[in-house]
Structures are given as structure tokens and as C-alpha cells.
């Protein structure tokens, strides 16, 4: 009995010592994480100041643009980590407090589809896995947080020369501007792509180069191909370089178009000071074009046969890649961190997400449901801003999830707003008990100046409309080329 008692006492003492050491270690880790979070906030403020100042200036140096792009990427990843950790810490260790909404919890649930589980590591590898950490913070380990802090510190430390050179770049914006208002009116997240197109347009062709130079731009519907090209063509360097900038936008390139392409183009800009033979033609196609038709078009258009002229072809089809005289530019969806930053700024506007952790957690889940769509992000953000409360945002997350599931089952949904013959079913995403639902058909791009009176965002916000079939404004872009999308909408009672 004495030996057994000594053994039991020794085991109890050992467990107690281990518990005390573990508790001390947890406190040390928590203190370290708090320090890293404070340091991360400071670094994000500094990097944000540099990025904002660079966005207000005309930066043309290629090396500076690449460094700026890397800094923006690191900043976006840092904000993503900070937002995920802040939401978790504010809502409790498992992502919610007692009585919180189910959607708030799902925003941090163990799911491979959860963007909070797909934060990228500084090296670009899919790190930042959902790791059980310590205290109230889970999902981002202390090592990963330290790596983010260290990478930002190193980048800001290396940016001293960049800041000095930046002061020599001419300013574009003389007045202070709100970040969310600026983002609503400017292209977001295509810095390197724009730089690549600019290099192609402004480079001097060596003797014997293909005539004219052709750049294919490929990507899925509504990824931003037209927006990218429009912003490039609005750049003063491009306008000063070419005597004529013209656009051709149709489903195909055939028939009477071949006889005189220039007569079927929309002239966007003319410059009498540039050499006449230096022209830019932008061709936007929905369908494929075969090489025979393409060669016929080039041979019939002597005005663009010079080596100093350029052609940009955009399409959803990979088949246009073979038409290029240079490597094709393929547009992809924004990274998870960049898309979250865009949606967060659009949804919160001038409000600070840090002061509304429950709304931020709901916005995180909503962003994960939108599949990287700019259309969904802008439409959803408008509705959320007009209903800035937890109940409405919770209903919005639930309804958006139902919307996606419903339309996937009905027509194998994908992000192409111009799919014809396949109806979409929608309803208010913020009303407590929607009394109507909407059947959307035949969404098309409209060139009319006057938009329909009924807007899709109003229907989503709970605006009650008479039953029947109407043309409604599905979505209107706020940045060039200012596309309007109209559709037929049948309004029915629930």
C-alpha cells in the first residue's frame, strides 16, 4: 500500500507540474501572438500608405511596378490573416459566442471550401491550414503569423529606394479620396496584366517582326477582359502612341466585316500627332475565328498591315491563342485574399470592419459563396450597405447559399450572366419573409442610355413590385466600359 501510495502521489505531482508548464507555455504563446498581431497592424498601415501613394502617381518603371505588385500582394494577404484572426478572437475560440448565428459559425467551420482555410503563405504555397492553435485564436498558427510579419518587415525595409523614386513620379490625384469610393471607380487587382499589355503596345518592333503584332487575351465570362483593355486604351501613353484606336465587338468575324473592318469598328480615339500607320484595333469575340478567316481579314486591311500597328483579340475561347504573334494573356480569378479585400471594402464602405466582427465573419462566408465574381460582389455589397445590421447580413448569407444551390440544381449554374434559355430563380436576400420570387431570363448587354426602372438590386433588397413580366436592369458597371446588363424578369408570388 505504501509503494502504491507513493506511485500515485508521484503521478499526481508529475501531472500537476506538466499542467503548470503547459499553462505557462500557452500564456507565453498568447503574449507572442498579441505582439505579432500588433506588429502586423503597424506594418499594414505602413505598407498601405506606400501603396496608396503609389496608386495616386503615374508609375511607368517596370521594376517599380513589379515591386509595387509584390507589396500589394503581401498587404492583401496580411489583411486577410488579420481579419480572420480578429473575427475568431472576437467571436470566441470556435468562431462564435453563445447565441451567435449559425452562419457566423460556418464562416470558420472545418471546410475545404472555406476561404479562411485557404490563406496563402508568403511563399505562395497553400499553407495557413486550419490548425488548432491556442487561446481564442484558431486557424492561423503562431509560426505562420510570424512568417507574415517577417515577410512584410523585409519588404518594407527593402522599399526605401522605391519610396525615394516614387516621389519623382507625377501625381494623378491631387485631392484625398476614400479608398472604397476609389475602388468602385477604378480597375482592381490587374496591375501586372495592365503592365503586360502596355509593354506589348508600346514596344519597338525589330526589323522582320510579324506585321501587325497580335496579342490574344483569354478568360472566362466577366473576368474583366473588356475592362482591362478599356483601361489600357484610356492611358495617355497609349493615346499618344497611336493615331487611331478602334473597337470591333460582335459574336463573330465574318461576312461583310471582312470587306472593310474599319467601317464596322467604333472609333474610340484619334490622334493627329502620331504616325498615321500606327493604329490599334481591339477585336472582342464571343465565338471562335478560324485561321483562314483571320488571314483574309489581315490581307484585306492594308491600314493595319504595318509593323507598328497592333491588334488585341479577346475571347472566352482558347482557340484564339494560335492567332497571336506573342504569348497569350490569360486572365484568372483574383486570389482569395484580393477578392476578400475588394468585397470587404465594397460591403463596409466607410465603416471599419474591425468594429463589426460579427458582420465581418458573415461577409467572409458570403465572399466564399460568390466564386470570385465581380458582378456578385458589387450587387451584394450594395444590398448589404443599405441593410447594415447582423440580422440582414445573416439572412443574406443564407439566401445566397440557397440561391447558388437552387440554380446549380436547375441549370448547372456558372458565372455567365448572358446564358440564354436557362432561367435563374431569385428572391429578396434581406427580407425576413419574402413574399415574391423572381424568374430571370435572357440576360443581355444593352447599349441603351435609359435603363429600365426596376433594378435587380432593388428586388434583392425587398422592394415589392407588381406581378408580371418586366425588363429590369440586372447590373451596371461603374467603371469603363460601363456595360449595362438587362434581362426579362417574371415576378411571382411565393
TrEMBL record:
Transmembrane segments: none annotated. SUPFAM superfamilies: P-loop containing nucleoside triphosphate hydrolases. Residues 194-350 form the NB-ARC domain. Coiled coil: none annotated. This is NB-ARC domain-containing protein. It comes from Urochloa decumbens.
Amino acid at each position: 500500500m505504501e509503494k502504491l501510495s507513493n506511485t500515485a502521489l508521484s503521478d499526481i505531482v508529475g501531472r500537476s507540474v506538466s499542467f503548470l508548464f503547459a499553462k505557462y507555455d500557452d500564456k507565453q504563446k498568447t503574449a507572442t501572438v498579441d505582439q505579432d498581431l500588433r506588429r502586423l497592424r503597424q506594418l499594414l498601415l505602413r505598407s498601405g500608405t506606400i501603396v496608396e501613394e503609389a496608386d495616386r502617381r503615374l508609375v511607368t518603371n517596370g521594376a517599380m511596378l513589379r515591386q509595387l505588385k509584390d507589396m500589394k500582394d503581401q498587404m492583401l494577404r496580411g489583411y486577410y490573416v488579420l481579419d480572420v484572426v480578429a473575427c475568431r478572437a472576437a467571436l470566441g475560440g470556435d468562431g462564435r459566442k453563445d447565441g451567435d448565428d449559425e452562419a457566423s459559425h460556418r464562416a470558420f467551420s472545418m471546410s475545404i471550401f472555406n476561404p479562411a482555410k485557404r490563406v496563402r503563405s508568403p511563399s505562395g504555397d497553400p499553407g495557413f491550414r486550419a490548425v488548432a492553435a491556442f487561446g481564442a485564436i484558431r486557424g492561423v498558427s503562431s509560426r505562420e503569423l510570424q512568417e507574415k510579419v517577417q515577410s512584410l518587415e523585409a519588404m518594407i525595409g527593402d522599399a526605401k529606394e522605391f519610396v525615394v523614386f516614387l516621389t519623382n513620379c507625377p501625381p494623378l490625384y491631387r485631392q484625398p479620396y476614400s479608398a472604397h469610393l476609389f475602388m468602385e471607380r477604378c480597375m482592381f487587382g490587374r496591375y501586372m496584366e495592365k503592365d503586360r499589355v502596355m509593354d506589348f503596345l508600346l514596344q519597338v518592333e525589330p526589323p522582320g517582326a510579324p506585321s501587325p503584332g497580335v496579342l490574344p487575351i483569354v478568360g472566362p465570362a466577366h473576368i474583366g477582359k473588356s475592362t482591362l483593355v478599356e483601361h489600357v486604351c484610356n492611358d495617355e501613353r497609349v493615346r499618344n502612341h497611336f493615331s487611331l484606336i478602334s473597337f470591333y465587338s460582335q459574336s463573330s468575324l465574318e461576312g461583310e466585316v471582312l470587306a472593310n473592318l474599319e467601317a464596322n469598328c467604333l472609333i474610340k480615339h484619334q490622334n493627329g500627332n502620331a504616325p498615321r500607320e500606327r493604329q490599334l484595333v481591339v477585336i472582342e469575340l464571343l465565338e471562335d475565328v478560324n485561321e483562314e478567316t483571320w488571314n483574309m481579314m489581315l490581307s484585306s486591311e492594308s491600314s493595319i498591315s504595318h509593323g507598328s500597328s497592333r491588334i488585341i483579340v479577346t475571347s472566352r475561347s482558347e482557340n484564339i491563342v494560335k492567332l497571336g504573334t506573342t504569348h497569350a494573356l490569360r486572365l484568372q480569378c483574383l486570389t482569395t485574399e484580393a477578392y476578400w479585400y475588394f468585397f470587404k471594402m465594397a460591403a463596409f464602405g466607410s465603416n471599419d470592419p474591425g468594429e463589426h466582427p460579427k458582420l465581418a465573419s458573415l461577409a467572409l462566408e458570403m465572399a466564399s459563396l460568390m466564386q470570385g465574381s465581380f458582378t456578385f460582389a458589387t450587387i451584394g455589397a450594395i444590398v448589404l450597405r443599405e441593410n447594415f445590421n447582423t440580422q440582414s447580413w445573416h439572412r443574406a448569407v443564407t439566401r445566397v447559399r440557397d440561391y447558388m444551390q437552387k440554380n446549380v440544381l436547375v441549370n448547372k449554374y456558372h458565372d455567365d450572366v448572358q446564358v440564354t434559355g436557362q432561367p435563374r430563380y431569385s428572391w429578396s436576400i434581406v427580407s425576413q419573409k419574402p413574399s415574391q420570387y423572381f424568374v430571370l431570363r435572357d440576360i443581355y448587354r444593352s447599349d441603351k442610355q435609359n435603363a429600365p426602372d426596376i433594378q435587380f438590386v432593388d428586388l434583392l433588397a425587398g422592394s415589392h413590385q407588381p406581378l408580371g413580366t418586366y425588363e429590369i436592369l440586372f447590373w451596371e458597371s461603374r467603371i469603363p466600359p460601363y456595360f449595362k446588363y438587362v434581362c426579362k424578369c417574371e415576378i411571382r408570388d411565393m
